[in-house]
C-alpha cells in the first residue's frame, strides 16, 4: 500500500490528498533532541471540498501529520499510519525551508502563530521541524500549502477539521484547535492594508460591506469605516500641515549578476535616453524632446534616489548564506552610484540599504532633506525556490519624510512567459506577508527600535502615505515573437510609437491591473520607451540588440521537467515602476524611461522621476484633534438612537443630456436627527451596480453631523462606453438611486433626463437604416423602413468632406485634434448641420479634427467594421487578390464602409507619392502607408475584448495595406 | 417557559392608504395629520408581548406605495415572514391594488409568508366605499387574515399586529438548528447569509427575558 493510498483510506470522502511527504520529525525546542527522539512520519496536504452551504467554491487546505504505529509491538510489519495532528492552512501557518547540515537534506519548519484577538499580547506559537531528502515531494508539499494560503480562507472555514482533530493524540505538541470563532477578527479586516502599507487607494464605498435594498449589510463595520474616513478627511482640512514638494528618482535595474562596468549617469540623471542607440534615423524629434526635458531635470535634482537592483548575485550559494562576495557587490554598486552622480555626489548620502539574496534596495538622500527623514524600516520576503527562497520576492524600505510615510518595494517576481499566474500569486504573497516591523497586524505586535507610535484611537488616518512598487516584475507581452520584434524595429518614430501603443495593449501587467488580478489600484506612467528585456551581445541579436537565441523553455517544476519546448525570449517590459497613494493627486510622474546606453546587463535600467507632495503635520495636535472629532461624532452605533436624514428632493431632473457633455446636479442631504448619521448608496441587488454606468455620485458614502447639510453631486456623462445601450433604447433616462441611512431608512431618488441620441456608439446595421440625422429620427418609423443606405451617411459625409478638403494635410490622422472642434463636428453629424463654416474649410485644424472624428466614430461602433469573427480569415490573405476576395465575406453594411475608407486612404497616399517625388522628405511613401495602416488597422479590425485569441496587429496592418497601397 | 421570536414584516399597499401612519401608531403610538409620502423604505422595530409570556419582535419595512417604485418592492418583501397589505376603506381602487399585491406575494414571496389584509381609515366610516363583508369574503377565499384599523384613533391597530404575533410562531417553520444567532449582536436586520437564514426561518432567538438585546 503506498503512503498516499493509505492516507486516503484515513480520510472522509469530502477530503482528498494534494501532496504528501515522508520525513523525520524532530522536536524543535525542547531538550529531547539528545534522546534520539526522531521518528519517521508522513506529512500530507489535504483539501476539503465544501458541500453546499458555502458558495465561494474555494477549497480549504490542511496539513496533517501522521506517524506509524505497529498494531502488534512484536511484529515487524506492517505498521499503520495514524493522524497525530491536523492544522488548518491559513496565514497563521508559516512554512520555511532551509538547507540541512548534511548535503541533500532539507529542513522544513512549520510554525503556527495563534492570536485570535489583537488584545491578547501573548501570541501562542507552535513550531515543528522535519527533515527530508525528497526535494521533489518537498517542493510539491510547500507549493500546495502556499496555494491554499493564497486563497486566504476565513477562520470559520475549518469546522470540517474537527473530526480529524478528534483523531489526533492529545500528546501531540502540534495540534491547533481547528475551529476558530467566526467573528474574532472581523471588525479589524479593513485595517489590513495592501503590502502592509498605510495606503489604501480603494474608494471608501468599495471597502464597505455588501448591502442592497432591504439588506443593510454589516452596519457596525460600515459605520466604523465611514467614521474613520470622515475623521481622516476632516483632519486633512482642519489639521493640514505645511505642504512641500519633493522630487524622487526611482530606479530599477536587473544587473544579471554583473559588476558595474559603465557610467550609471544616464540612469540616475537623464529624464530619457535615445531609444535607438544604433539606428538614429527617427532621432530628430527625439533629440529635441530630449533636450527640452533635460533642462527641466537640471532644475530639480531629486531629493531622494531609490534604487532597486535584482540579480545582484547569481551564485547558487548566495541563496543559502551571505558571502563576502555578495558584500563586495553591494559595495561596488554603491560606489558606481556615487560615481554616476558626478558633480552631485557630495550632496547625497546613503541613508538606507536592504538586501535579500540578489535583491537590493538603496536610498540616497540629499543632505538638505535628511533632517526631515525619520523612522526608516525594512522588510523582505522570499517567494522564490520552493516558495520561500530569496531568489525571487521583494525588499522594502519605508521612511517618513516630515509626516508623510513613503514606502518603496523592490520586487523580483516569477520569470518566464507562461508563469503569469505565478507572478500574480507572488504579488498577493507580498501584499499579505511583506510586513514592516511596527505594523499593527493582528498576528504581529512586535515593535522594533524605530517602530512608530500609532494614535491610541487606532487606525492610521494620520498618515499621508505613498508607495512605489518597482522592480523586475517579469510580466511579458502577449504577442508573437516576430510581431514584437517587427513592431519595434521600424526606424520611423511615429511608426515605432504606434508599435509601442499596440504592444502596451497586450502587456500582461497592464491587463492584470485592469482586471484587478494583481497590483490592484496601482498606477503607472505612460510607457513610451522600448522594452527593457532581453538584450544580448554578439551574433544572436536583432538590430536593436534584443536576444534572438533559441533556448529551452524554463517551464519546469523543481526537479522534474514538464513539457520542455524551445522558445525565444521576446522583448518585454519586465522592469516597471508603479505607485499608489492615499492622495493620488499629490503624486506626479515627470519622467519614465529606460536607459539604453547602459548595456552591461541583459536588462536595461529603468528610471522614473516623481514629484510628491509631502505633508508636515504636528502629530500630537493631529491625534488630539482626531480624538475630539471622534468625540464629536458620538456613539452612532447606539442601537437605540434614531437616525433621520432628509433629502431636499427625491427627484433629480437632468434635463437634456448629450453625448460627452457632462450634466451636474446637486442634492441636499440634511441630518434632522439628534445624533451624527452615516449614509451610503446601495445597489438594488447585492453586488449589483449602485447606479447606471453613465452616472457618478460624490460622495457615495459619508457622515453628517446633526443639523448639518451635505451636498451630494450627481453627474451624468455619457461616453463611447456607456452610449451604446442608451442608443439602443433611447430618449428617456430613468434611474432610481437608493440612499441608505445606517440603522434607518432607505431613501429612493429618481433621476430622470432626456437623452439626446448620437450617431456614435451604434452598429453599422442600425445606422444604414437612418435616412435622417439621428436627432431627427423617429425610431419606430426607421426600424420598419426597408430601404437601407449603402453606408452610414455619417461616414460618407466625413469621407466626402476629407476628399474635398483634406487630401494634402500633413499630420492628418496623426496629429492630435482640438477637442472642441471634434465635439462640434460630432454635433453636426447628429443634427445634420454643416461640418464646418465656409471660411474654415481651408483651416488644417478643422481637417485634422474631421479626420480624428472619423477615427473615433469608427472606434465607437458597437461592432467593428470587420467583425472579430472574420479576422482570422483576413489574416490568411497572401496577395491583393485574395484580400479582395475576402470582402465577399464581410457583412453587407461593412463592405461599402471598408471600400470608401480604403479608397480614400489609397487616394491620399497616391497624392503624397506625387508630392514627395520632387521634395526629398524624411518619410518615404511606404512609411506613410505603414503609419496610416498602423492607425486604422486596430480600429477597423478591432479586437473583441471578450474573445480570444486576438489577431496579430502586424497581420492586420498587412491586410489593410493590400487595399491602400 | 417564555420564548422570544423575531419576524420580518413588510407593509405594502397603494400610495396614501396610511401604511406609514399605521406603523407610527403601532411603534410609537403617535399620529401625524400631515405626513409626507414615503419615498423609500423605512425600517422600524416593535416588540409584542403575548399572554403566554413569549415575545415577538417585528422588524418592519414600511415601503413606498408609489407605482414608480414598484420594481423595488421585491427587495423588501424578500424573506419576509409576514406582510400587512393595506387598503383605504374609502377608496375601492386601493382594494384592487391590494389584491394585486397579494397575488404578487403569493406568486413571488416566500411560500410560508403570512398575509394580513388591513382596511385602514375606519374613522372615516361615513365615507366608506369598501364594505367589511366584501373584504372579509375576499380574505377568506385567499386564506388571509383580515381586520380594519384607524391609525388616527388607534382602533384595531394593536389587534392586527397581536393577531399576527400569535399566529406566526405556529405557522413559521421550526426554528433552525444553525448556530447563527450569536452573530446578530446588536445589529437589527444585519445582512449576510446568517441574517437572511434567520429571517427566513422565523427563529426562536432566546429563552429568557433579555435573551436578545436587539
What is the total domain count of chain A?
4
Q: Tell me which CATH architecture of the largest domain in chain A applies here.
A: 4-Layer Sandwich
**Poorly predicted parts of chain B:** 174-203, 205-214
Question: What is the CATH homology-level superfamily of chain B?
Answer: P-loop containing nucleotide triphosphate hydrolases
**Span between N and C termini of chain B?**
20 Å
Work out the helicity level of chain B.
25-40%
Which residues of chain A sit in consecutive blocks of at least 5 with pLDDT less than 50?
27-37, 115-123, 168-199, 277-298, 439-462, 556-562
Strand content of chain B: 15-25%
Please give the largest β-sheet of chain A.
7 strands, antiparallel
SS content category of chain A: alpha+beta
Beta-strand percent range of chain A: 25-35%
Instruction: State mean pLDDT of chain B (0 to 100 scale).
Output: 82
Compute the number of helices of chain B.
6
User: What sequence of helices (H) and strands (E) makes up the elements of chain B?
Assistant: EHEEHEHEHEHHE
Subcellular location (chain B): Cell membrane
GO molecular function, one term (chain B): GTP binding
Protein name (chain B): Ras-domain-containing protein
Region (Disordered) (chain B): 166-202
Walk me through this protein's architecture:
The complex is a heterodimer of chains A (965) and B (214). Chain A has 965 residues and is of the alpha+beta class. Chain A has four domains: 3-190, PH-domain like (Roll), CATH 2.30.29; 245-616, Endonuclease/exonuclease/phosphatase (Deoxyribonuclease I, Chain A), CATH 3.60.10.10; 636-757, Immunoglobulins (Immunoglobulin-like); 792-964, Orthogonal Bundle (Phosphatidylinositol 3-kinase, Chain A), CATH 1.10.555.10. Chain A contains 24 helices and 32 strands. Chain A has a seven-stranded antiparallel sheet. In chain A, helix 10 (481-489) packs antiparallel against helix 11 (493-505) and helix 18 (819-831) crosses helix 19 (844-860). Chain A is globular, with a radius of gyration of 32 Å. The N and C termini of chain A lie far apart (72 Å). Chain B is α/β, with parallel strands linked by helices. Chain B has a single domain, classed as Rossmann fold (3-Layer(aba) Sandwich). Chain B has helices at 19-28, 73-77, 92-108, 132-142, 157-171, 192-201; strands at 4-13, 40-49, 55-63, 82-88, 114-120, 145-148, 204-206. Chain B starts with a strand and ends in an 8-residue tail after the last strand. Strand 32 of chain A pairs antiparallel with strand 2 (40-49) of chain B.
